[in-house]
Amino acid sequence: MASYPDSLALLPGFDDEVEFRFSEVVSEGSQPSLGLGTGDLEKLVILSPSARVPDVNWRRRRITVRPAEGWQPNRVYRVELLPGISDVRRNRAKLRGVVTFSTGAPLPEDTLAGTVIDWKAGRPAAGALVEAVFLPDSLPYRALTDSSGNFHVGPLPAGTYLVYGVLDQNNDFRRGLREAFDTVRVGSDPGRVGDIYAFVHDTLPPRIQTVTVNDSVTATVTLALPLDPAQRLDTSAVTLRKLPDSTAVAVRAIRLPAAAADTTQPAPPDSTVVRRRPPLGDRLVIEAAEPWRPGDRFALEIRGVRTVSGVTGDVRAPLVVPDGRPPA
Question: Is the dihedral of CA 251, 252, 257, 263 positive or negative?
């Protein structure tokens, strides 16, 4: 595969198309390119910096690309063709191409590298979207992580960037409001960005989803949002009252489930599980000082619960001990 123009070319006034050229006819795919980002070829092209879907056209042995708004002066452009091109016999190729050139700005030299991690799953995020926003112009340069969650974006203009790592669930190369992400600010010195731990940012307060009785003294409280792993709650934050007379019941302990309690041990060398940060969890275990009996009902309150997004609130829910009788 060849490409036009040459990478790192300085082309003031450029008004042509970027081309990826192949030795044989390639397939247009079953979905045509209509400028909506849904075409098969559109899904294989990332053009930066631009906030719009680029114009992608099929020319038998060529694929051409240009911004929907046209090439802008004094910018550094990066056009990436992702693996997935197929020929007319539907043989898919692993070819990948990148063209970087300038329409007048100084030629780029910097590269940003790092790893995006799915914090909740505890593993590197393959195919995650990386968006490096050039400041102060807010121009976004985009790329995807490899199968190990690593990324290398460049060459880029020298300067300061906000680097986003996004779990792009709908594969539209854009940050969605409900998609997990996080961001790192990188100064003028190029190089290693480090690890970006992506999680769903939510402004909603914490709330209890379920309360499950485990045995005669413990119950697991599952919350709707992940907890701040740095928070340490103690029994003074928990109130348990037996119904119907609201008699206070002493609580001996509140803790993380056993599977998530030990976060200090490193993972085995061949493991992909991330241990550099405590894992995200959405459960707490409470332990009563005295055994409860089948059929008992309680009102549970935990105060000062903080989500991973930093929102703090009090949570309440009933705790019902099964009576052990089979249903009628």
Answer: positive
Distance (Å, whole) CA 96 – CA 174:
20
Its pTM surpasses 0.70: yes
CA–CA distance, 65 with 43 (Å, rounded to integer): 12
Are the beta carbons of 310 and 229 closer than 8 angstroms?
no
| Helix, coil or strand: residue 260 | helix
- Read off the tokens for 125: 């995020």
303 in Cβ contact with 243 (< 8 Å): no
Q: CA 303 to CA 319: how far, in whole Å?
A: 16
d(CA 288, CA 219): 9
Distance CA 10, CA 100 (A): 10
Q: What is the DSSP letter of 259?
A: H
CA distances from 322 to 95, 205, 284 (A): 59, 29, 20
pLDDT digits (tens, 9 = 90+) for 223-281: 999 999 999 999 999 999 999 999 999 999 999 887 554 433 444 444 444 457 888 99
| Start-to-end CA span in the chain (Å) | 71
Question: Contact 145/130 with Cβ under 8 angstroms?
Answer: yes
Q: Is the peptide bond before 155 cis (omega within 30 degrees of 0)?
A: yes
Residue for token digits 């990948």?
A: 96
- Alpha-carbon span 300 to 178, nearest angstrom: 30
